[in-house]
Design brief:
Length: 124
């Protein structure tokens, strides 16, 4: 009760709400930019997109999201020739249905921004 009766609390809450609105708008604009860069992101929920973007530097954490933007691909087979902390290379893809595995003609290095290496995955 005492907290709610403080004179400045309403103004502080309004200010916090305004700042939160600005942060939400900036985050939405950021996500829209990523969606324009990689249009398959439009088919993901905001929560899944945030997960992909926040883990973009770790392709191992992004690969489980593949079925959400790649049809019939469950994941990629990853190898870490320079250690677990380095960027992996994808050597093939695994289908969502059955146990089909398709090896790549050449390994694909998953480096750069997440939308860049995902775009390379499409062209590969």
């Amino acid at each position: 009760k005492e907290f709610c009766n403080q004179g400045s609390i309403f103004a502080r809450l309004e200010k916090a709400q305004t700042q939160l609105g600005m942060c939400e708008k900036a985050l939405q604009e950021f996500m829209e930019g990523k969606q324009r860069a990689f249009p398959r992101f439009y088919f993901m929920s905001s929560a899944d997109l945030l997960d992909v973007l926040s883990n973009g530097n770790s392709p191992k954490k992004v690969v489980p999201q593949f079925p959400k933007f790649f049809i019939a691909i469950n994941d990629y087979t990853l190898e870490f020739p320079n250690g677990e902390k380095a960027r992996p290379i994808a050597t093939g893809m695994n289908a969502c249905v059955g146990k089909e595995y398709v090896p790549f003609p050449e390994p694909l290095l998953l480096d750069g921004k997440v939308e860049v290496y995902l775009d390379k995955c499409i062209d590969w």
